[in-house]
Write a structure and sequence with these properties.
The protein is mainly α and about 450 residues long. It has 19 helices and 7 strands. Helix content is about 55%, strand content about 5%. Helix 5 (about 95-115) runs parallel beside helix 15 (about 335-365). It is elongated and about 90 Å long.
Amino acid sequence: MRLPATPPDLHAFVQTVARSGAERLVALLEHKAVGPEIDGRYLHWDELRRHPAPEGMTHEEWWYRVKTARTTVSADLPLLDKTGQLFSFTRPDGLLSGLHRIDRQLGKGLELADPQLANSGVRDRYIVESLMEEAITSSQLEGASTTRKVAREMLEQGRPPRTKDERMIFNNFQAMELMRRNAHVPLTTSLLLELHETITRDTLDPGEEGRLRRGDGPITVQDRASGEILHVPPDASKLPGRLRQLCAFANGSDGSVFIHPVVRAIVIHFMLAYDHPFVDGNGRTARALFYWCMIREGYWIAEFLSISRIIQRAQMQYSRAFLFTETDRGDLTYFLLHQLDVIQRATDDLYAYLARKGQEARQVELLLKKDSGLNPRQRELLAHALHHPAARYDIQSHRRRHGVVYQTARQDLLDLEAAGFLERDQVGRAYFFSPVASLERRLKKHKP
């Protein structure tokens, strides 16, 4: 991808204008028609320079006025770029409205959309589904080429990975579960290294798994297609101190002023990718930390979202938001706005998924008597079977999908077979269950 144009040096700009008299600077500052956003968009210099400037202004003067307006509503963060400059972010209307929307939708809103989420069993099922989706797409973003179908079968059946690509996905699933279990534990460098070791197990040289990169030479982030250098991370010798700063920020123990929890989670995501502390797996580690922070801050519904699926659809926008921040003196607003949009899209996907699952469940309810004697796990399987008559189910995948013990999963399937809804085949020592051809008719006639 093309690197964005670097914004003009504002210090040099001010000096140039001042030499011609202070009147012009005063006129620019008094120009009330210019604010932090342009037509509701938070434009980078690379974008702004392509728009017509306001009458009587050059593009450089316009940019100076925009940056001045942004400074009045900006806040510094206790995190440094590699030159020692503080990262900061602005609070434009787009950011505030995005945070408000997330607070509303990721609070009680989802429980109202699907009251079944109050049921711990249903919640666990949705969480497993989301963990699988995020594990697959996050790994695919880093180059894993296994198909979603094969990857899901591996995770559902619990079989060992057969290729390096499958291993990446398997590891990512384990890593997401690790951070979910540690959601209420403070972030430490030790936990971060454990996360990375889990993500990269058996995919890197053993000496690189769960270990910070060493100063064996400069490391760069390059465009996969062109090879152009996009980012040069901080020197390896700085990493221990930088990660201690990041952990303090993540835990809210850095003494900084109040920072919205979602802003904190997104900043952690950015900083891990910026520091690039490992030879590989930095993107997956950064996204896992985002989930950890969201859950830790009380946004438990984040467990049901897959941000990587949204990023995968538009990877260039993800990279551009990162580069806009880096080239505009560490202004994180670009990345924050992009990630808020990603979270919103992931939330929309979740609502659509819940609506679809709810419709399937209602279809089964219409076919069954009210008191059918079937538990929610069995009802969901039958809803799936109605739409997928060629599907095959086994005990291990049913167990993992619903987070139950082997005996419970086994009894679920055997009871459905006994009721005439499924038929059983044996392959080696394993049993597989398939929907009977007359499933819909049998559901209508079912008596508990």
